[in-house]
Amino acid sequence: MWFSQCTVFRLPETPNAALLADKLADAPFAPCGGLDWFTEGFAAPQSFTPELVFKVEQTMGIALRREEKVLPGSVIQRAVGERVVRIEQQEGRSVGRKERQELKEQVTDELLPRAFVRATHTRALFANGMLLVDSAAASKAENLLAKLREALGGLKAQLAHTRRTPSALMTEWLLRGHAAGRFELDDIASLRGAGDVPPEICIKRQDLTAEEVAGHVRCGKTVSELGLVWDERVAFVLTSEFTLKRIQYLDVLQEAAENHGDNAADLAAASQLIVSANLSALIGELVELMGGWQE
């Protein structure tokens, strides 16, 4: 379970594995029915076991599966148009707005059962008093949390808010040309100016310690995204919303997982522990550098 993105929720309490498994079993994923536009529910996070909770030591992995029908509006409109033409030719009359809407609903009901189905998974980890969601999209992360709360009958959780904003810390680091702690500047950054339509500068594959880069900050721009490397183990992009994007686990972590065994279960367990430990430590250090959690 190598997360490529991460949204962080703080948890005052973590449900135990047995309770979590029982509750998720009451909210399982079921495939789309004939007239369903989408369905979603909890599914096994690992392919080699049907268990809805993959527990490894003090960590728990879960997954929310979603299926949705892909039925382009252009397909519906074309089918409706063909029927309108046929009615007008065969019956010698025009088709009004109300009848067009009825035809659209009829066509949709006929096409929906045959529509292509797209499946996606949103994975998450319970680790060290946090819920880590493998997504940087607020809508996906909050949807998974909402489904968890619905299944559990409630779950206290809050988004990551620190005393000092991520943007303020990233802007300071870029201005002085180096990060703090075990963090190093990478080669990606996004900066924004002020105003109703703020200008934005995207920097890629450039030396972030260059005077030209610091000059953008001196001109009043703030950093909205910053590429960082933590402890020579994890490369990622930190955002102003305290989400992690484009997470890459460097060779030392990949090799550590491979050394735990070569079967699917051992590799999955090792990767879950490695991801949980490293992301938790990385996030904890960021929070400390931002002055701690905002209560």
Please sum up the structure shown.
The protein is an alpha+beta fold. The protein has helices spanning 17-25, 73-91, 97-111, 138-152, 166-176, 211-218, 251-258, 264-289, and strands spanning 6-10, 38-43, 54-56, 59-70, 116-127, 130-133, 158-159, 183-192, 200-204, 222-230, 234-239, 243-249.
SSE inventory with pairings:
Layout: E1 6-10, H1 17-25, E2 38-43, E3 54-56, E4 59-70, H2 73-91, H3 97-111, E5 116-127, E6 130-133, H4 138-152, E7 158-159, H5 166-176, E8 183-192, E9 200-204, H6 211-218, E10 222-230, E11 234-239, E12 243-249, H7 251-258, H8 264-289
Antiparallel strand pairs: 1-6, 1-7, 1-12, 2-4, 3-4, 4-5, 5-6, 8-9, 8-10, 10-11, 11-12
Coiled coil: 138-165
InterPro entries: RdgC
GO cellular component, one term: nucleoid
Give a description of the structure.
InterPro entries: RdgC. There is one protein chain. The protein has about 300 residues and is α+β, with helices and mostly antiparallel strands. Among the domains are: about 75-115, no CATH class; about 165-290, no CATH class. It contains 8 helices and 12 strands. It has helices at about 15-25, 75-90, 95-110, 140-150, 165-175, 210-220, 250-260, 265-290; strands at about 5-10, 40-45, 55, 60-70, 115-125, 130-135, 160, 185-190, 200-205, 220-230, 235-240, 245-250. Strands 1, 2, 3, 4, 5, 6, 7, 8, 9, 10, 11 and 12 form a 12-stranded antiparallel β-sheet that branches. α2 packs across α3, α5 (about 165-175) crosses α6 and α7 (about 250-260) packs antiparallel against α8 (about 265-290). The mean pLDDT is about 90.
